[in-house]
Specification:
CATH superfamily: NAD(P)-binding Rossmann-like Domain
Structural class: alpha/beta
Number of strands: 9
Number of domains: 1
Strand order of the largest sheet: 3-2-1-4-5-6-9
Order of helices and strands: EHEHEHEHEEEEHE
CATH topology: Rossmann fold
Largest sheet: 7 strands, parallel
Radius of gyration: 16 Å
Helix content: 25-40%
Length: 184
C-alpha cells in the first residue's frame, strides 16, 4: 500500500497529458487510464520518472473491466485523493462506476469532471456520493477577431491545472459566451 498523494486521470494520455505530468511533478503518484497502451507508455517515459505512474490500459466503455481496474488500483495504492475525468457521454456508466468504487474508501476525495462545451447548456447529472467533493470544469472556446476556435491541448491542460489549484465547484476554461460564436 502506498503512502502519499494519489491521483487518477481518466483520459490522461491525450488532451490531459499535461495535467498528468503536472500532477506527477507536484508529488502525486498518478494512475492514468487510457485505451492506447503505447500512448500511456510514452506519457510515462516523457515524464523522466516513469515509476511515478501506474498505467491502466482500459476502455471506460467496458464498464465491468473499467470498474475492476479502479477497484484494483484502490487496493494496490490504498485510496485516491484526486480524480480528473474526461469521459464522453457515450459511456454513461463510467463516471458512476468511478464514484461508486471511490466512495467506498474512507477518505475525502476530489472529482474534477472535465466536460465539453455542450455541458454549459445541458449539465450532466452527477450523483452526490459520500466523501466526494465534486468539481465541474467546462471546456469552452476562444474568440480570435471574427473567428472562433476550440482550445488547444496546452490551453486545456493549463485551465484544468488552474481549476485544480483553485478548487472551486465550477470553472470555465476559455469562454462559453457568446454561445452562437462557438466553432462548428
Amino acid at each position: 500500500m502506498a503512502v502519499g498523494r494519489e491521483a487518477l486521470v481518466i483520459g490522461g494520455s491525450g488532451m490531459l497529458a499535461g495535467v498528468s505530468l503536472w500532477l506527477e511533478e507536484a508529488g502525486y503518484h498518478v494512475a492514468v487510464i487510457g485505451r492506447d497502451r503505447e500512448k500511456l507508455q510514452a506519457l510515462a517515459e516523457r515524464s523522466g520518472r516513469p515509476e511515478g505512474f501506474s498505467l491502466l490500459p482500459v476502455d471506460y466503455h467496458q464498464t465491468d473491466r473499467f470498474r475492476e481496474a479502479i477497484a484494483s488500483l484502490v487496493r494496490e495504492r490504498g485510496g485516491i485523493d484526486l480524480v480528473v475525468a474526461w469521459i464522453h457521454s457515450t459511456a454513461p456508466h463510467a463516471l458512476p462506476a468511478v464514484q461508486q468504487e471511490l466512495s467506498a474508501q474512507r477518505r475525502t476525495w476530489r472529482l474534477f469532471h472535465v466536460c465539453g462545451s455542450c455541458a454549459y447548456k445541458e449539465p450532466p447529472r452527477v450523483a452526490d456520493v459520500p466523501n466526494c467533493l465534486y468539481r465541474r470544469i467546462l471546456l469552452g472556446f476562444r474568440l480570435q477577431g471574427d473567428d472562433s476556435r476550440w482550445l488547444t491541448h496546452a490551453e486545456i491542460a493549463a485551465g484544468v491545472r488552474a481549476a485544480i489549484q483553485g478548487d472551486r465547484p465550477f470553472s470555465v476554461v476559455g469562454q462559453v459566451e457568446p454561445w452562437d460564436r462557438r466553432p462548428v
